Amino acid sequence: MENSILQQLKSRLREVHDLERAGAVLYWDQATYMPPGGSPERGRQLGTIAQIAQEKFTDPAVGKSLDQLQSLTESLPHDDDDASLVRVTRREYDRAIKVPPSFIAEVYQHITTTYQAWAQARPENDFEKMIPFLEKSLDLSRKMAGFFPGYDHIADPLIDLSDYGMKATEIRKIFSSLQEELVPLAKKISSLPPVDDSCLRRRYPHDQQMFFGERVIRQFGFDFGRGRQDKSPHPFTIKLSMGDVRITTRIKEDDFAWGFFSTTHEAGHAMYEQGVNPEFEGTPLDGGTSSGVHESQSRTWENIISRSLSFWEFFYPKLRETFPDALEDVPMEDFYRAINKVQPSLIRTEADEVTYNLHVMIRFELEMQLLEGTLAIKDLPEAWHKAYNTNLGIQAPSDTDGCMQDSHWYSGLIGGAFQGYTLGNIMSTQFFDQALASHPEIESEMAKGEFQTLHNWLKENIHQHGKKYTASELIKRVTGKDLDISPYIQYLKNKFGTLYSL
Amino acid sequence: MENSILQQLKSRLREVHDLERAGAVLYWDQATYMPPGGSPERGRQLGTIAQIAQEKFTDPAVGKSLDQLQSLTESLPHDDDDASLVRVTRREYDRAIKVPPSFIAEVYQHITTTYQAWAQARPENDFEKMIPFLEKSLDLSRKMAGFFPGYDHIADPLIDLSDYGMKATEIRKIFSSLQEELVPLAKKISSLPPVDDSCLRRRYPHDQQMFFGERVIRQFGFDFGRGRQDKSPHPFTIKLSMGDVRITTRIKEDDFAWGFFSTTHEAGHAMYEQGVNPEFEGTPLDGGTSSGVHESQSRTWENIISRSLSFWEFFYPKLRETFPDALEDVPMEDFYRAINKVQPSLIRTEADEVTYNLHVMIRFELEMQLLEGTLAIKDLPEAWHKAYNTNLGIQAPSDTDGCMQDSHWYSGLIGGAFQGYTLGNIMSTQFFDQALASHPEIESEMAKGEFQTLHNWLKENIHQHGKKYTASELIKRVTGKDLDISPYIQYLKNKFGTLYSL
């Protein structure tokens, strides 16, 4: 279907898209190289751009074009590209017109100053300083939800922004079933003698870590001609354009896992974005479909692949060559056990696969309570420590590694920021099982350092579609089933059952 | 003067300003870190942003505000900030409304692809490839001039964009007087035995060069809390915000001068921008007033300061500590002679102070001929070589170091790109003489590595004013005279007369 209304709509959407991507460049720069003096104006710049993008997108002319295209696209199949463009744009338009552009600018300006304040306050363990910022963030988050009256739960409109169609009630149900399985598993493993993972905390020089990480993700299929890797305090993936998807990582010379699994995690996100159908460029279809599906991709490469024995069968000799001093006396099996050590710990991004979701659930539940009004910002540190005590049996010595640990609440709205991690874990095994069913050779290829079959399968079945299908449509399309925790539970029980001889 | 019309105007100007600065971030990124795959969309992003900025600036509402403010500001003195804001905005508005926003977007898109093509074609010495790009650039440049009918010379409207108020005829006159003085001086020196500058081409390790350069410019007064230095093929200075002014440099391990004088040059530009009155932030007054005045600042720090004997009296021992292998056996006087070696050469940015302006004049004259239509793009390489033969008695072995040498024609319009360099050289000595007259201690402070008196004088007399005064107003205000080549000629004759015992 080609007609002038569609062309006109696409041209307007491209303009909005350019502004959004320009905002991404400003954000990336802010998080990587911007000097401190740039901070106040950068917030305003981001706000201005976001506001103009919002104004242009919510122009009644867009709504009119969408109305006119409605009948034309109704006759087309659901998976037609143009029909999908109109459908997804309609959904985003109907949502966007509910939010005033000045509010968007206010949010951007606020989160920019909040992020800068957090970057200072976090190492100083100064949560007090962050209270007014977070109170405003919470206020803005409630206001945002308020633009969508008729929700079941106040968090639903916020969750919708990252995981379209999911509801707080449904997520609580899934999380509760998962918790029932994970807590006994974690407990059982905790009762066993602890694995020695000290080999991971020997000296791994900075440059070699960057080199090794980049080598691995290049082999995965991350395209450095269409992306790059830099460093930032909190790693992230960002799409600056279809041909420019960037990741950031972090390096500690005395902690190999800290940087390496961050690199493979972000590469998973980035490969998703690099794999979107180029035809979708400049439209709302150009991007990952949900936070959950995005995490399914990052966790596939971070966990299912780069924490697997097959992966290290190929890469461990290379790793040893790169870090001879650190690994000379470490057999691969010991290294493999070290990177898969299960232990209740304080930091989400360093957590093992079994306890990781407990970190997520704590954050999700705190978000819900903040939004429901049953928890005040000033009481967040205490609530955080209490939740860690209850769920993981440990407590952070500071708020630095407590409720100031993640950047999410300090760089965006509160609510909807965390559930995607666990939804992604669940999906990752559903997808991977399906890939294995179609291509059993994936397993043996991994042990040869070959990832093309898997990467192609992911591109074909997930990446290329961008936002064309919702997460639930995609899961159904790919696996024939709905979201289901059992493959994930099975995966964990198999892997850690073997590892810990349960 | 404070009233709501002014506030409204300022708020609109701030929005335009934010978009322009966002464009600067995108440009900086493109020239430093962007992967090749980002190129096509980046051009479009820059074009979209420039077009929206242009649309917003040329909104009739801006004109109406300016009309309403006219009578209010007429009663204010010329140097009142608000009166200056209205005057300068009026000037830029009257110019901007003559250029259609779609044309701006077309130019941005074109120069982005041209720059990328040049970055590839230049090392491959493939001028042929650049012909269609340059032909389009020339076509766009003529079109641009065409938006300003009534000019004396087709280049005048283009010159106006960087050196407001200057005319091709006037520049040709100044250049011709200068040439009469420079050519005999250069010839006289060329007849003497050549200086040995081989010490500059020993091994100067990359990191130490970056370190030393940053140390020097920090001491000049470049504020790294409000700026940074990166590398790019062609060094430049760019203002991302009042608190974020960045420079780029280049490093060759076997050529100390190549990187070092580029760093001190760009630092001069950057300190100008860092020194603009913060009250001007977000308005058209926030920025250097002309290409010429900008170059006067860069050339002050590059030449008058960092190619002076006093400067090296302080820094040479530090330089030797940093590069002991290269400089152990080189007395300061030999080093000083080496960095001031006069010799006809191929590369403008490496040229000595005596021959430098001849490079500029060649480019300016070629630009004039291209615009006048007496020279075709395809004949540019030949014309370039011919001019170098005539003026400097040498010829480049390739177009890489010929007409593809500078980025200017490949990253902007043709016309008005070069005259500022020589105008700046002339102004730099007029300003510096004035600074010395007020503060004779500047000379002796330099020999102690102290630059605060000079920097403060420049801030006070030049930097803080931003675009408030035109270049000619500023020269008059600071020196009491008009633009005058005699102090510059005197400076060169003194310095090189002593150096070469003429």
Detailed description of the structure:
- 2 copies of one chain form a homodimer.
- Chain A has 502 residues and is mainly alpha-helical.
- Helices cover 63% and strands 3% of the residues of chain A.
- Chain A has 2 domains: 4-121; 168-499, Neurolysin, domain 3.
- The first copy, chain A, has 21 helices and 3 strands.
- A 3-stranded mixed β-sheet of chain A has the order 1-3-2, sandwiched between helices.
- In chain A, a hairpin with a 2-residue loop joins β2 and β3.
- The termini of chain A are far apart.
- The interface between A and B is large, with 39 and 39 residues.
Quick structural summary:
The structure is a homodimer of 502-residue chains. Chain A is mostly helical and 502 residues long. Chain A has helices at 4-32, 39-57, 60-74, 81-96, 101-121, 127-146, 156-162, 168-190, 206-220, 256-274, 291-305, 309-322, 324-327, 332-339, 356-372, 380-392, 419-438, 441-446, 452-461, 471-479, 486-499; strands at residues 227-231, 237-241, 244-249.
List the helices and strands and how they pair.
The structure is a homodimer of 502-residue chains.
Chain A: H1 4-32, H2 39-57, H3 60-74, H4 81-96, H5 101-121, H6 127-146, H7 156-162, H8 168-190, H9 206-220, E1 227-231, E2 237-241, E3 244-249, H10 256-274, H11 291-305, H12 309-322, H13 324-327, H14 332-339, H15 356-372, H16 380-392, H17 419-438, H18 441-446, H19 452-461, H20 471-479, H21 486-499
Parallel strand pairs in A: 1-3
Antiparallel strand pairs in A: 2-3
Helix pairs in contact in A: 1-2, 1-3, 2-5, 3-4, 5-6, 8-15, 9-10, 10-11, 11-17, 15-16, 15-17, 17-21
